[in-house]
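Listing 4. Sequential folding, example run.
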Amino acid sequence: MLAKELKPGTVVNHDGNPILIGSMTVQSPSARGAATLYKFRGKNVLTKNKVDITLKGTDVIDEADFSRQNVQVMYSDPTHIFLMDQENYQQYELPLEDVAEQIPYITEALEGIRALIYNDQCIGIDIPASVELVIQQCDPGVKGNSATSRTKPATLETGLVIHVPEYMKEGELVKVDTRTGDFLSRA
């Protein structure tokens, strides 16, 4: 595939490693006849290291043998999380340290989890951009403070602590951004 056709979310082989393209910038030439440069920032899928790639628009790069399968969480133990493919019921297991960033957002009922499959091996998971979680514990709001946009810490059902507006109460459902860990809205 040509470099100018790459989009964020594509996985390509670069120097023998699978790279998940995260962002890209286009640098237009300043001189006549110069080539447009495409700068990609990605992540090595196996080692999780950041990678910067610069290519001309006509350079050819191979797509990796990579797929995303819809899965659901079966259970987890102290060292691994176990997933099941929703189409063919194949089971995958991942060490918890490989998915440590996503664990605070995962509940048993979470829909939209996708397993990242490379060469028939599950190497990670992809979760939705936002999830809905229940507030388990937070301090009560003080009457009269609702006019300002003050926040207070709240512990969610998964143990994640985020800052929510002062008017929120225990038992309410909130929407949380999984990329930043920020409160988005009531759900």
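-- end of first protein; second protein begins --
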Amino acid sequence: MTTNTAHVALYDTLADWEIGHLIVELRTGRFTGTPWKVVTVAESAEPVTTMGGLRIVPDLVLADLDPASSDLLVLAGAEFWDAGGGRPWTDAARRFLDARVPVAAICGATAGLAQAGLLDDREHTSAAAGYLLAQPGYGGQDRYVDARAVVGGDVVTAGPDSPVQFARSTLSRLGLASDETLQAYEDVFHRADPSAYPVLVQAH
């Protein structure tokens, strides 16, 4: 059986906590029954250091990333997004979307997609509407949704305070779990509701 692959963008100051829930659920498949391969990608083969101080050696360099060999691109927040950086990653996101491969972006990465015009025609969210309105090149204010996470076709977006909802929405977009399972997932990991745990572990 072919294993699906998620490519996770790596760069210095990557916000570890924002994508932690998602990549764990993808890699383990513990609540979906469908483990994925998680492959890290960076602009060079040099190690990167996350915001939490983890030093990670990438599996792949960006120049070799082919959307045809991927099932998801994950973009986390990082300091460079607010400085107007990240063009290589938004270019990659555009290639993925042109190939109809989903892109999941959280926090500052949503600003990068906004600057690239990739949110103009899709429903989306971010840390706040004003955050995106401040981004040069953004014209998607009419498609902004005030929600913890939003699935807009092939793009999943969320703010930095919503890593659980980001995971839930991405798993939903990928068709990896039922609405009941995903609600239980959010109830357990966001609301700390023990009554939802049996529903979650019996999901598959």
